[in-house]
């Protein structure tokens, strides 16, 4: 299965690198390189297990949520601050447009991780010097956040499949192929918060991922207050 394959791959690399390290005498630099390679695979395996646990908890309904008021624009600003170094490595521009106060009630930790997955995906699939634009706004009873990228775009018949676990739609702009769990986790986490994640895309023009959550209205000022 896909799960067993993804778990075996880093374990195989760790074992192979370790076996190579035990063959013959090596200097300290070689051993540091070998240990570094093994630690990279350990980190990859840890990340994969964490993601699988998140999906598993969501499946059985044991993902514990702490509901609180969240303003999507503020959340987007924080995510851009955290991920801008990744965009800068590719000379990309990350921007946030806050149209109005997009309030919702959600678990900010779970929602934040979902949005990080979406923005990180946009960075990976957009070309060097590209733009990733985040926009927050309200429409009717929903608070929304959009992430628009300049990636290759996704054909209409695959715009639902990209949310399937372990599904990969080709390599990213750097030629790397991911595990295929980021968008699955994002969708599951957003739905656990009562929201929806949709994709709109045109091949050759990029994609837009839109998060919609039930809007929370600000309480009216008490009578006599200014």
The total count of helices amounts to 5
CATH topology of the largest domain: Heat Shock Protein 90
- Give the end-to-end Cα distance, rounded to a whole number of Å: 62 Å
Radius of gyration: 21 Å
Compressed to H and E, one letter per element, the order equals HHEHEEHEEHEE
What portion of residues belong to β-strands?
15-25%
CATH H-tier superfamily of the largest domain: Histidine kinase-like ATPase, C-terminal domain
Write the CATH architecture name of the largest domain: 2-Layer Sandwich
How many distinct folded domains?
A: 2
Describe what you observe in this structure.
By secondary structure, this protein is of the alpha+beta class. It folds into 2 domains: 2-59, Helix Hairpins (Orthogonal Bundle); 68-214, Heat Shock Protein 90. The chain contains 5 helices and 7 strands; from the N terminus they run H-H-E-H-E-E-H-E-E-H-E-E. It has helices spanning 2-21, 28-59, 72-89, 108-125, 182-192; strands spanning 68-71, 93-98, 103-106, 131-139, 142-148, 196-202, 206-214. The protein has a 5-stranded mixed β-sheet. A two-stranded antiparallel sheet has the order 1-3. Strand 4 (131-139) and strand 5 form a beta hairpin. Helix 1 packs antiparallel against helix 2 (28-59) and helix 4 (108-125) runs antiparallel to helix 5. The protein starts with a helix and ends in a 12-residue tail after the last strand. Mean pLDDT is 83; it is low at 221-226.
Please provide a brief summary of the model.
The protein is α+β, with helices and mostly antiparallel strands and 226 residues long. Helices cover 44% and strands 20% of the residues.
């Amino acid at each position: 299965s896909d799960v067993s394959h993804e778990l075996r791959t880093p374990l195989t690399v760790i074992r192979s690198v370790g076996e190579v390290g035990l063959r013959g005498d090596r200097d300290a630099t070689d051993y540091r390189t070998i240990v570094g390679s093994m630690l990279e695979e350990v980190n990859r395996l840890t990340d994969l297990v964490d993601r699988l646990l998140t999906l598993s908890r969501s499946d059985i309904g044991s993902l514990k949520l702490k509901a609180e008021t969240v303003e999507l624009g503020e959340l987007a600003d924080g995510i851009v601050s955290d991920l801008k170094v990744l965009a800068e490595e590719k000379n990309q521009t990350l921007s946030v447009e806050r149209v109005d106060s997009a309030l919702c009630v959600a678990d900010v930790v779970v929602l934040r991780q979902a949005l990080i997955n979406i923005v990180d995906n946009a960075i990976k699939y957009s070309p060097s010097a590209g733009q990733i634009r985040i926009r927050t706004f309200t429409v009717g009873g929903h608070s929304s956040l959009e992430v628009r990228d300049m990636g290759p775009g996704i054909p209409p018949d695959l715009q639902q499949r990209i949310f399937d676990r372990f599904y990969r739609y080709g390599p990213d702009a750097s030629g790397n192929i991911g595990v295929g769990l980021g968008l699955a986790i994002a969708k599951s986490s957003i739905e656990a918060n009562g929201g929806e994640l949709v994709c709109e895309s045109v091949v050759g023009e990029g994609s837009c991922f839109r998060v919609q959550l039930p809007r929370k209205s600000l309480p009216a000022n008490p009578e006599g207050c200014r």
